[in-house]
C-alpha cells in the first residue's frame, strides 16, 4: 500500500508487483530517470548564476534553436539511461534519429525503449519560469538481442508501459504512471529525496481553466475558435479563466490539479500543430487517461494514432473529460 510521504524508492519497490512485467527492470528504469531528474534539477536551479542560459548555437532536426539546457538535459538523461542495462533504444527531441544501445551484457537482454523531451518549455529557461522533462516507455517489438529498428519507436501510445514528467517549478516534482493510476513525488532538495506528496492524482471531471496560445487565434480551425468563444461567454461558471505558461508540462500539471483544458490545435500556419506525438502527446495522453482525463486530436483518441515518423506532430487537446468532449462537439459541428 502506498503511503503519503513514503520515498519514491520505497514506492517503486512496494509497487513492483503491480507492474504488468515484474522482472524489476522497469523499476530500475524509473530509478534511473529519478537520478537524471535530480542532476538536471540541480542545473536548472542554478540557471541564473552560471553560464547555462541562452542558445547553444545549434538547431535541432525540427529547426528549433537548442538552448544550452536542452543539450545538457539531453546528455544527462541519455547518459543515465545508457549506464543501466535496461534500455535498448532511446529517441529524443534533440536527436535527429534514434540511438541504439549496445548492452554491456553479452546476451543483450535489454527490452525497453525510451522516448524523451529532455527539456520542455525551453523558451522559459531564460526568464525563470517552470520547465519540465517528459518521458515515455515501451517494450521493444523486434527480437531481444538484435539492434533496435524504427518499428520499436513507432508504436501506438496505447502500447506504453510507463510515462511521466518532471516539473522544475516552485518545487520539483516527478509525476508518473505505469498503468495503475498517477502518482506525484516532490523533491526535498535539502536531502535529495523524492517523497510521495500527490498520491492518485486525478483531473476533476470539469474545470474552469482553458490554456491555449491565443496569439494564434486567427489561424485556428473554426471549431476551436467557436470553443474559445464558448469559454469566454457568460453563462453558469463561465467565462472560464485563461492560463497559459507555454510549458506543456506546467500547463498540464496545473490543469490536472485544478481542472482545465490544454489546446495546441492545428492552424493555418502549421497543419499538424506543434507538439510531437511520440515524446510529448502520447506520454501526456497516457497520464491524462490514467488520471481520469482525456486526450484527443480534436476528433480521435491520441493513443490510437498509428505513428509514421519519429518527430511527427499532431494537434493536441487534453484535460478534464467534460471539457475535452465539449471541444470535440464543437469540432464535429463544423466538420
Ligand atoms: P519544447 O521546449 O520542448 O520545444 O516544447 C515547447 C512546447 C510546449 O512545451 C509548449 O506548450 C509549447 O511548445 C508552446 O508553444 P508556443 O510558444 O507556440 O505557444
Ligand atoms: Mn516540449
Ligand atoms: Mn524540449
Describe the structure in brief.
This protein has eight helices and 15 strands.
Question: How would you characterize the overall build of this protein?
Answer:
- With 335 residues, the chain is an alpha+beta fold.
- It folds into 2 domains: 8-198, Fructose-1,6-Bisphosphatase, subunit A, domain 1 (Fructose-1,6-Bisphosphatase, Chain A, domain 1, 2-Layer Sandwich), CATH 3.30.540.10; 209-333, D-Maltodextrin-Binding Protein, domain 2, CATH 3.40.190.80.
- The protein has 8 helices and 15 strands.
- It has helices at residues 8-15, 25-45, 68-83, 150-153, 222-232, 248-258, 277-290, 321-333, and strands at 55-59, 65-67, 87-92, 99-100, 112-120, 131-139, 162-168, 172-177, 182-188, 193-198, 209-211, 241-242, 260-264, 293-296, 316-320.
- It has an 8-stranded mixed β-sheet with strand order 4-3-5-6-7-8-9-10, sandwiched between helices. A 5-stranded mixed β-sheet has the order 12-11-13-15-14, sandwiched between helices.
- Helix 2 (25-45) runs antiparallel to helix 3 (68-83) and helix 5 packs across helix 8 (321-333).
- The radius of gyration is 19 Å and the shape is globular.
- The N and C termini lie far apart (47 Å).
- The model has no long low-confidence stretch (mean pLDDT 93).
- The structure holds 2,5-anhydro-1,6-di-O-phosphono-D-glucitol and manganese (II) ion (MN) (2 copies).
- The site of 2,5-anhydro-1,6-di-O-phosphono-D-glucitol has 11 residues, from strand 5.
- Its EC number is 3.1.3.11.
- GO terms for molecular function: fructose 1,6-bisphosphate 1-phosphatase activity; magnesium ion binding.
- This is Fructose-1,6-bisphosphatase class 1.
- It comes from Formosa maritima.
Amino acid at each position: 500500500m502506498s503511503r503519503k510521504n513514503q520515498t519514491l524508492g520505497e514506492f517503486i519497490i512496494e509497487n513492483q508487483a503491480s507492474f504488468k512485467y515484474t522482472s524489476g527492470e522497469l523499476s530500475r528504469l524509473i530509478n534511473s530517470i529519478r537520478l537524471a531528474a535530480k542532476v538536471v534539477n540541480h542545473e536548472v536551479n542554478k540557471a541564473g548564476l552560471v553560464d547555462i542560459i541562452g542558445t547553444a548555437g545549434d538547431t535541432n532536426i525540427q529547426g528549433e534553436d537548442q538552448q544550452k539546457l536542452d543539450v545538457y538535459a539531453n546528455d544527462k538523461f541519455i547518459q543515465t539511461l545508457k549506464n543501466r542495462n535496461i534500455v535498448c533504444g532511446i529517441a529524443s527531441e534533440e536527436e535527429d534519429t534514434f540511438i541504439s544501445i549496445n548492452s554491456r551484457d553479452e546476451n543483450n537482454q535489454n527490452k525497453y525503449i525510451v522516448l524523451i523531451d529532455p527539456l520542455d518549455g525551453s523558451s522559459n529557461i531564460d526568464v525563470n519560469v517552470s520547465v519540465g522533462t517528459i518521458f515515455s516507455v515501451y517494450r521493444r517489438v523486434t527480437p531481444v538481442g538484435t539492434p533496435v529498428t524504427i518499428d520499436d519507436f513507432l508504436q501506438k501510445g496505447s502500447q506504453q508501459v510507463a510515462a511521466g514528467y518532471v516539473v522544475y517549478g516552485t518545487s520539483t516534482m516527478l509525476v508518473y504512471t505505469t498503468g495503475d493510476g498517477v502518482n506525484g513525488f516532490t523533491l526535498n532538495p535539502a536531502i535529495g529525496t523524492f517523497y510521495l506528496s500527490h498520491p492518485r492524482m486525478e483531473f476533476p471531471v470539469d474545470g474552469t481553466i482553458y490554456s491555449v496560445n491565443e496569439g494564434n487565434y486567427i489561424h485556428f480551425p473554426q471549431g476551436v475558435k467557436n470553443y474559445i468563444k464558448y469559454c469566454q461567454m457568460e453563462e453558469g461558471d463561465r467565462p472560464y479563466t485563461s492560463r497559459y505558461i507555454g510549458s506543456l508540462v506546467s500547463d498540464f500539471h496545473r490543469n490536472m490539479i485544478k481542472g482545465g483544458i490544454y489546446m495546441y490545435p492545428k492552424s493555418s500556419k502549421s497543419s499538424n500543430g506543434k507538439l510531437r506525438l511520440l515524446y510529448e502527446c502520447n506520454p501526456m495522453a497516457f497520464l491524462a487517461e490514467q488520471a481520469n482525463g482525456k486526450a484527443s486530436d480534436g476528433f480521435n483518441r491520441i493513443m490510437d494514432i498509428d505513428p509514421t515518423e519519429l518527430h511527427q506532430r499532431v494537434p493536441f487537446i487534453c484535460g478534464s473529460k467534460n471539457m475535452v468532449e465539449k471541444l470535440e462537439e464543437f469540432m464535429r459541428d463544423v466538420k
